[in-house]
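User: Round two. Same drill as before: sequence, then structure, for each protein.

Assistant: Same drill it is. First protein:
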Amino acid sequence: MEDKVSLDIFWVLSKNNRNQIIISAVVSLVLAASLWGGFFGVWRDKLIDLLFTSKPASGDIVIVTIDESSIQSIGQWPWPRFVFGRAINNLSSAGVIGIDVNFKEPSGRGSADDESFARALQSSVAEVVLSSEVQPDGGLILPLEKFRAHSLQGF
């Protein structure tokens, strides 16, 4: 009986009100189907592109690479850790220093080499970000604890 009453109320509404309810329901269904089907994903991606690509590069980023010229000048890879410590000291005016070299094992040149690098990390005015190794299972191999204590970790 309640179903009959609710249907009767629907038909008792003015024709204008019925049309508004039907149009609202159809528009809601179309929008819901569009959102569920990913129709607006393209527009969202375009908006994100506009937000993040319309600004010119600031020129504040400097990338220091390890290239053939560096290897000729400094010597065979892997370099002693004091070389990285010296680079950190030379880049003291930077806001952030990122080093994409993994320091997961003790130096083959002995603990003094590790200690000089740890001291450079500790005394750095700039934040230093050291890389971590991402494993196939999603785990991370982090730098040695003595380096993590005075740096941030990235991957």
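Second protein:
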Amino acid sequence: MFVPGSMPKIIFSVVVKAVDDYFFFSKKLIECFINLENFSMQQSKTNYSIFGRRIFKFLLAASAFYFVYYKVTNEKDADHYLYELGQAFTQTSTFVYLSIVLMLMFFNWLVEAWKWRLMILKLEPISLSRSLEATLSGLTVSLFTPNRIGEYAGRVFHLNSADKIQATLVTVIENFSQLIVTLLFGAFASVIFFESYTDYPIYFSLLFSVMLFIVAIVSIIGFLNVRLLVKPLSRIKFTEKRKQMFHVLEQYQTIELVKVLAGAILRYAIFTLQFFLLIKMFGGQVEIFPALVMISMTYLVITVVPTFLLTEIGVRGAAAVYFFSMLGNDNVPILNAVFALWIINLALPALIGAVLMVDFKFGKEKAE
């Protein structure tokens, strides 16, 4: 049983901790790349090392395929979800909904690839197709890491001449734009959610929404002025040589970062529309405006709660059911939509990335 006002406090504390953890994990990832880079420089260019990397890529791709297969076949009520999907195909409208959702999936990752390319161009020329390949490969690697933090590693190894640590830092900043957008729209949704769908005292819900807006606005200001982060980042305990790498952030102008933020907003709109269309496809009876509020609240929770992809469907489903239950909706269409969206937006692109990784050659391998 919740004490009045406890939910806003809990959600807000989780949001603040998530932002803190985001940068903590990012720092650890950069340190990991430093160690990996140092190790790689000590390795000789032998046939053994080439063969080892190829075996690693094959095992990673095979693991990704097995993971998705295991997740789909062993997810609780998976048979029911698949049955409902089959039943949905008996209706003509299903093909229309599904075609739109699949098309939006392609645009979703294309926009993400465009965002990343816009940032990485400061370090290395890269085509949009190469950026898309790197983005999908990163998604494959992210299957095995909490909150998909491994996505950075899968991306930057597609770069040839760029410094991997600088590229990781830039990728972290680029991904942060999506977190900012989720916080911002979550703040707007929270105002309506607490006012219209809960009995929390007005001062608690108002305090939560205002504080969430403050976090989002401060994050936006910090993102658009990322060059000002060079000095604070330089205080982190790295060698002087490594500290110089933070100066890449000074190259980004506000107008460029506005474009990246606009891309993040477009992506948010895309997977919000996907969620709504899938709910309708499975027979959910919900008006679009209340649905947008609950979808935004769902995305807010699943973004800030640390998860492995192994447990992500459960977290998504629990959050979606909690919020949509306040609209009096049947849980079945909501859970079906969550399961289908996971397959379409994450599992399917990750499998494509796994296939691409098998033929992918590290910059070092190309030189050899």
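Confidence is low (pLDDT under 50) at residues 1-12, 14-23, 39-51, 362-368.

User: Perfect.
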